[in-house]
């Protein structure tokens, strides 16, 4: 009762330092380098996503923890907030914005983040899940699937907004991960699908007719791991994936994934897509070799094939240099290009903090 | 003289670590849960505002302190920067951006933040001032008043930009708080008012004809507190409010507010609005019951009535679960809905850091 | 092998606290005050840029360091992300976004930031390089030159995006600083230049025909310093500058710069601009007097002349109060004003953290 009424507001402003210092962790990374694509000039660009995040854990006692995470994404070559296709700005916390509780029952979070399938699949992709054209995560590892087709233009292709995320504890090597989203509208542009421009199958800013969901089950046994996953998005495209990895030596990991997408709900034809990826990571001292080959086949269309080879040299646990080469063939290999064989080269530095 | 000229810039970049570590505090909160409105599907949304802030205090000696605060606001269900009406993006530091000095004379700050009236009124509102539809702060507690009608579309309704904020020290239980803004233009859309679409009373990006101001006087005596406040915005709407609270028991706080808005300067009719709110907070162990009832009456229009009941269960000082119910009646109860009786349900988690 | 597969993701989320705490430094400043311009009402605005930044240094051993810096910029009077001309939003990390390595060879960084010329010239400008109308940095010190004409509208005038930055070590008082940008397109609006509205010299979102570059050489000897710099931007405007400074007493610094811009590549006439600035800083106790006079002359146009006088009073190493006066003459002195003599007054507080 010694404090003035407005001290409540000022306290909100200036007190609370003690716990703030200990509860928020800042983290992130910068990845920049020279990138060259067959049909483009030499550019400066990224290989991995660039993040600046804030996260924390609060111990609530009895093994219960409150957790939160907010993750910005940006383009360090221009200083801009991350942009998606056609330069559309993505949300400020594109990486994720989630809060939840963790305990013996597992982890429950609410908000926006990678779906269970997209998050689990990273462990089976040879470029550790980064969405660069040298890697396979953004296209072949998911058979061209998009998790969030009814978000604003340019938005993420592998996240759910307005979702509940559950990760079970591991039991006998098994873990269950699920994500369920609400049907609520989120500012999408019209999605024509099986409709017409005048009467699109999903009008602008529409609600979904069913709840998008994502499920993955992972199994671990010694050096081996398996994943079985399925997901359905807001326009009822379905994806299913089976993946595995094994450390044949402590320094050598082999991995594969087989994925199938069904877009029959929104396409009269070309709706069945199959894809596979085989990859390897091999550690030599501070260096790491990445290799992968994969194929994507939309029924009735030409097959898309990709081969990638990369090298990472660690200057420390937080900083490495990298050099990548990849070739992608198909028609067109990478939209909006019309070329059917595209090479990518990248040479840069990755620094995490 | 041992440093190169560019070291000035690099120093700007990499030195200064020592004081930076001690002078900036990161704080904020996430609030997410399931929300259901009579006329909408089950959504994931917020109850309180979501913040990520940076603040600090520098001791200048002789009781003088320099203070600053920067507060982002965001939508954790989509990861986006906070959006206002119709999805318009709000400023990056929507919460506040202020710098100032604090000492024996009180606190003077410059920048953008809650007005004296809006900030003081929080202590007399049973949902601790959060702008959710379960609470009363955004509508009934202020008689539908908007502090900042000449800011960009979607902007805050209870802040002044381009303002000087003064909070006096407390004297015999009395405290004076004032906010005065400049007349400068800030990118508003045209405001028709008593004009026409062709000749709006306030054209786009216009200056105010008078300085917006806000004053509150608060008085505290033992378990009781009172507030008297008045404000005038950039389109010369006026609001006046009288509020009080009393702890009838240490765990039970009762509160009320009476507020009147006069919009005669911009409306030919329906310009007189009266409103009142009565509320209670009652603590039971880790639980807290919130209850409130209120009414808003625009002259010549149907009365709007609201009843709300809530429960917060603290898992810790920083984290609580909540469940809310509210009903709002009137015509229309909540624009753009056309229904005259709307129920709100909310169930979620609040975590501060 | 005790961790579940998803623990990888959760680890990414919640581990790494130890190094995060020690590796990221938050820094920034707020600058706000009352500003008055001859032809405008009294406003609240800034004198210096306002920043909120994140930076870090990682020791890689053998004198090698990994460095990064991310710097937001904002308008504290409205809470908005920094806006450029006509209210266009600038990138989130307008200040800079760079990552690199530092060692015996100097410092190499990649990303976006001030060019070598713009960064070096700050040391020779009497308002320490702040872009306020009281200072000379934004106009006279660079002869009206713009480093980045092919970035999105409203973007920075003194940065390169998509660039490599190199700063040499100092050798016998000499230091070399260079910046080279790629030719890649970055979302510019059409730039008419010597073309027409129908066929602009540089169409929208175009690549540059040559690589923009910037070079500065600085020399230091006791109390004196010199700079020789040259730069060419993406539309092949060229700028060259010679500058010097000397501490005639420990508390008195005198400085000058002579700069010439050649815009012949994009202008049929008025393409040769010459400018000079003379300035002084004088310390008296906690106070500092700033003074400067300068002239800019575009061939065939009226000369622009500026005189400025300022005073800064330090409350601490991190906080000072300031008062500025300046007069600028010419036709028009400051677009879009049509007046040929404009006075600026500023009175405010600067706080760094």
Share of helix of chain A, binned: under 10%
* Rg of chain A computed from alpha carbons, rounded to a whole number of angstroms: 22 Å
User: In one word, what is the shape of chain A?
Assistant: globular
Oligomeric state: homotrimer
Note the beta-strand portion of chain A.
over 45%
**Any low-confidence stretches of chain A, pLDDT <50, length ≥5?**
5-21
**Largest binding interface between chains:** A-B, 52 and 54 residues
What's the count of strands of chain A?
Answer: 18
Number of domains of chain A: 1
Q: How confident is the prediction overall: mean pLDDT of chain A? A: 91
Number of helices of chain A: 3
Give the H and E element order of chain A: HHEEEEEEEHEEEEEEEEEEE
Tag the structure with descriptive keywords.
homotrimer; 353 residues; mainly beta; Porin; 16-stranded antiparallel beta barrel; 18 strands
Description:
Chain A has 353 residues and is mainly β. Chain A contains 3 helices and 18 strands. Chain A has helices at residues 6-14, 17-23, 116-121, and strands spanning 25-37, 43-45, 51-61, 64-75, 80-81, 96-103, 106-114, 159-167, 174-181, 213-221, 224-232, 238-249, 252-262, 272-284, 287-298, 304-314, 319-329, 341-352. A 16-stranded antiparallel β-barrel of chain A has the order 1-3-4-6-7-8-9-10-11-12-13-14-15-16-17-18. In chain A, strand 16 and strand 17 form a beta hairpin. Mean pLDDT of chain A is 91; it is low at 5-21. Chains A and B meet through helix 1, helix 2, strand 3, strand 4 and strand 6 of A and strand 1, strand 2, strand 3, strand 4 and strand 5 of B.
């Amino acid at each position: 009762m010694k404090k003035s009424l407005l001290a409540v507001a000022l306290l909100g402003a200036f007190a609370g330092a003690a716990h703030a210092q200990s509860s928020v962790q800042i983290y992130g990374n910068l990845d920049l380098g020279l990138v060259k694509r067959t049909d483009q000039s030499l550019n400066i660009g990224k290989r991995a996503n660039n993040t600046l995040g804030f996260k924390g854990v609060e111990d609530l006692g009895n093994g219960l923890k409150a957790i939160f995470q907010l993750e910005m994404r940006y383009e360090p070559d221009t200083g801009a907030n991350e942009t998606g296709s056609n330069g559309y700005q993505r949300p400020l916390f594109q990486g994720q914005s989630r809060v939840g509780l963790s305990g013996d029952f597992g982890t429950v979070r609410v908000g926006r983040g990678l779906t269970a399938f997209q998050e689990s699949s990273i462990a089976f992709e040879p470029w550790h899940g980064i969405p660069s054209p040298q890697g396979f995560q953004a296209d072949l590892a998911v058979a061209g699937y998009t998790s969030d087709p009814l978000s604003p233009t340019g938005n993420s292709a592998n996240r759910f907004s307005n979702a509940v995320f559950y990760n079970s504890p591991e039991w006998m090597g098994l873990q269950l991960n699920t994500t369920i989203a609400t049907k609520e509208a989120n500012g999408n542009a019209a999605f024509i699908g099986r409709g017409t421009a005048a009467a699109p199958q999903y009008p602008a800013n529409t609600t979904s007719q069913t709840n998008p969901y994502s499920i993955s089950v992972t199994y671990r046994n010694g050096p081996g791991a398996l994943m079985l996953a399925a997901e359905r998005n807001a326009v009822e495209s379905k994806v299913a994936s089976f993946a595995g990895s094994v450390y044949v030596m402590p320094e050598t990991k082999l991995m594969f994934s087989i994925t199938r997408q069904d877009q029959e709900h929104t396409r009269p034809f070309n709706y069945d897509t199959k894809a596979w990826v085989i990859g390897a990571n091999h550690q030599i001292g501070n260096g790491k070799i990445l290799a992968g080959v994969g194929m994507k086949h939309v029924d009735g269309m030409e097959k898309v094939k990709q081969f990638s080879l990369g090298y990472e040299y660690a200057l420390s646990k937080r900083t490495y240099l990298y050099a990548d080469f990849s070739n992608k063939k198909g028609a067109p290999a990478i939209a909006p290009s019309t070329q059917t064989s595209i090479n990518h080269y990248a040479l840069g530095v990755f620094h995490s903090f």
